[in-house]
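Q: Could you fold this chain for me?
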Amino acid sequence: MTDLLTLRIPLLLAPGQDLDSRPIPKWWGEAAHQLTIKVIASRDEALARELEAGKDKKPFTVSNLRGRFPAGKIDPAAVYRLRFTALDQRVAAVFEAARNEGVLCEGREVELDFIRFTIPEQEAHIPIEMQGGTYQSLMNVLFAPSPPPRSLTLDFFSPTMFKKGPQQVPFPMPELVFGSLLDHWNASPFTPTKLPEEARTYARECLRAARFRLDSRSLRMFGEPMRGFVGRVRFATLNYDRYWMGLMTLLGQYAAFSGVGAKTTMGLGQCALLPEASDAA
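A: Sure. Below is the predicted structure, expressed as structure tokens.
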């Protein structure tokens, strides 16, 4: 059964709306979060209530609304996209059902911040993309015949930041990046095994940001200022060890589902591991 799922939904502005007299959000993360909970509630109300009750590590992420906003407006001719991920079997099953026969299938309307969007019909040739996986398949990297790489390049394509108590840390320190991934992995009841806490120590003591190309980003969420970064970072090992770099590779692959850092259920921390040939600078 699918434990992990990525679902990309194309959206077109629904006709018949007057948006000239009202501002649109500068950040759509809160609206995307609310839509995600509605999608889950449409198939499993008890699960939606459980998730809203406030677990620290929720088993889903959702992106910001991605697309072109000329002069801060929605382009009626543009295709926008939302990206949902599921981190356990229950949420994955809900997203699959919603895409195949429910509120996220072709021709349906969804609402973000009281603005209606339409999921294009198949005739528009704008596909819905869905890709599944399992925790066990990610674990297979530890048993691969070829050794893991000596460096890993991560692409942070939405603002990412970390919380250390009341402080925001807007820089990808290795122990924060891989420690966040470790926390997400170990919080899931569907993982075949918990990963050792020593992975955090290895990231702190043996990885460095060898090359990077980053830009800072600021936004407001629920009235609170958020400061993060976007861009690419290549993490290289100072002390190569096949087992520990295998764990770092596993966590890097997991990043595409779990996201990294704070507020991943509201559009922050969207991330993916790039192929080894990619250069971060």
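A (continued): The chain has two domains: 4-133, 137-273.
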